[in-house]
Amino acid sequence: MSICPSFSFREKYKYLLAITALVLLAGVQVIHDTSQFSNRAENLAVNSKGYLEKTKCSTLGCTNITELKGWELPWVEPEMCLKTSKLGRNEVKSFMCLKSVEEDEVISGVIMREGMFEPASVGITSDIAYIYPEATFIDIGANIGTHSLAALANGCKVVSVEPIPRNLAFISQSVYLMNKRENIQYLQNAVSNTSETLYVWKAENNDGGYKSNGGNAAFHNKEQIEKLSKNGKNVLDMSVKSVTLEEIMDYINPKVAFIKVDAEGKDCLVLQDYIWKPNKKVYIPYIMMEWFLVQNQNNNNLCPDIEHMIEGFYQAGYSPYNPVRAPMKREKLLNPITNILWVHKDAKKIYLHKDPVPFVIVYADGQISQVNYKR
Asked: CA-to-CA distance for 173 and 69, rounded, in angstroms?
């Protein structure tokens, strides 16, 4: 005989209702989650398709491009961050975070003392960015960002291409202070005429030591490394993927781009094939090249086809200008000069001299000590 049958029935009924309610709620949640998952999957497929169409990469392509977000870069503590001197004819300033002089006398040290490294060339980049705010600036061999940050200060989108992540980290610190993080991409790659794995090799100074700034690091494949350093003492424990300029163009897909190339003598390899392409996908009004190592034929023969490359520029509609914005005669292109600006015939023009302005380079123990401009 049950002592309290009515109570037992009520409890069983409550439990049954509770279990039924839980089952119904779980079913609704499963349907909701499935719907959300389906929507996310559909959106992912659409976004992926759009991304692949935008970059013109297949799901198996672009594997050598190494894009790093700011939070993926190594942590660095700048010696100081400062506003640069006025750049270009529009007198724009940028922020720059610098290494210590002990680590980087070459660039950071000069900026600490004088406000900018190679101000004439960086001023040209600033002025181009000013008249081409819709363009993307591709900074090949960005180092700590003198050119990247000048273009960024003028409102351009910037792609900083630099094989040494520590250098990219200094750029990222500067960009944070400028509040321009949405306008820049960081690619940790070397740029050449091939896609392959390269290794870091650093040349010795006259005193047998190593320049501390990463800007003097060269990147070579295994075969080249063996020729340059049989004992391996100059080879650093670091490798990087090289990409071509066309791979970068396909990856970022700009409508208009202007370029600075400082690839430690491999500038030739970056451009010599691309400049001859008859139907280029992207209009490039200006190309700045570090020229001193390119024209120096005694420097490991880095540009054996320099005349062919120069002819390619002329055939593509470009004319050369020196760092003081003066036109150069073709026969003068093999003379020692720091940088050359190639200007396309249809480019919107920054301020340029109409007549040649001769200048000389003064040497001290084989190194460039100063540039005297004679007007």
From this structure: 12
pLDDT for 185-197, tens place per residue? 999 999 988 888 8
- Give the integer Cα–Cα distance in Å for 288 and 144: 17
Question: What CATH number is given to the structural domain containing 149?
Answer: 3.40.50.150
Supply the Cα-derived Rg of the chain in whole angstroms. Answer: 28
Query: Which structural domain range is residue 285 located in?
Result: 67-373
The amino acid that residue 102 corresponds to is E
In the numeric block, the tokens 């700009």 are attached to 254
On whether residue 62 sits in a domain, the answer given is no
pLDDT over 90, % of the chain? 53
The DSSP H or E segment spanning 20 is helix 5-55
Q: Identify the sign of the CA torsion 127, 129, 132, 138.
A: positive
Q: What is the CB neighbour count within 10 angstroms for residue 107?
A: 22
Number of domains the chain contains: 1
pTM value surpassing 0.85: no
